[in-house]
Amino acid sequence: MSTLEIKDLHVSIETENGPKEILKGVSLTVNTGETHAIMGPNGSGKSTLAATIAGHPRYEVTSGSITLDGEDVLEMDVDERARAGLFLAMQYPVEIPGVTMTNFLRTAKTAIDGEAPSLRHWSKDVKSAMEALKINPEFANRNVNEGFSGGEKKRVEILQLELFKPKFAVLDETDSGLDVDALRVVSEGVNRAQEQNQMGTLLITHYTRILRYIKPDYVHVFVDGQVAESGGPELADRLENEGYVRFETATAGA
Ligand code: ADP
Ligand code: MG
Ligand code: MG
């Protein structure tokens, strides 16, 4: 078992008016095999948490720690994080002109594993993962993300998840902009990665919709840069019915 541990994490960004603290002491422990849903209102800092785990240079950790099996993640550059077994969906969001999906996937897989995947298995793995995600085979020869729709980008994100076999995945708003069919296909991909590789997942979402397809073991409500409440799946049901009003009121009155 591996453990991703976030301890009393404080993160600031630089704004025109000086530094602004966005994360105000986040603590969270995720073991491999577990799915943690992070839910919260817009602007509560969910994407900031994802970007900080990803190592985005804009976000400054002012105190606290992120460790993977005791190793200091904050000391690692972005590539080292991937090699350590972290999958960060926003890591490769960009269009890469002149680089086909096939070449990109193989190059990234080689960088992550430290050795090239065996040719014999690799092509087969790519093909079957693409089939499972209902990605048109012609995508293999297209340039990375060039002209991809929102839904296509999400599928390709999950394709990477299935092929790279990370220990932990941080998925930020994977459900946004997906119609029901795409949501089901994408969710099944995440579930396969969890079952086959005992992946631990941080599933960040504003809406409960995706939780019909990906069942969380734990649910954390994020409000104003902190975990306001943690619980089991029943907490998501409660949010589905009540929304975040209860928490917003608590913040406003604090
Ligand atoms: P969420 O993903 O929960 O909607 P974010 O992490 O995107 O929340 O944002 C949290 C807060 O930080 C918001 O108030 C947002 O305006 C602010 N923020 C985040 N990133 C930036 C940025 N790059 N520039 C200015 N403000 C930012
Ligand atoms: Mg603190
Ligand atoms: Mg966000």
From TrEMBL:
<keyword id="KW-0067">ATP-binding</keyword>
<feature type="domain" description="ABC transporter">
    <location>
        <begin position="4"/>
        <end position="249"/>
    </location>
</feature>
<dbReference type="Pfam" id="PF00005">
    <property type="entry name" value="ABC_tran"/>
</dbReference>
<dbReference type="InterPro" id="IPR010230">
    <property type="entry name" value="FeS-cluster_ATPase_SufC"/>
</dbReference>
<keyword id="KW-0547">Nucleotide-binding</keyword>
<protein>
    <submittedName>
        <fullName>Fe-S cluster assembly ATP-binding protein</fullName>
    </submittedName>
</protein>
<dbReference type="GO" id="GO:0005524">
    <property type="term" value="F:ATP binding"/>
</dbReference>
<dbReference type="InterPro" id="IPR003593">
    <property type="entry name" value="AAA+_ATPase"/>
</dbReference>
<dbReference type="InterPro" id="IPR027417">
    <property type="entry name" value="P-loop_NTPase"/>
</dbReference>
<dbReference type="GO" id="GO:0016887">
    <property type="term" value="F:ATP hydrolysis activity"/>
</dbReference>
<dbReference type="InterPro" id="IPR003439">
    <property type="entry name" value="ABC_transporter-like_ATP-bd"/>
</dbReference>
<comment type="similarity">
    <text>Belongs to the ABC transporter superfamily. Ycf16 family.</text>
</comment>
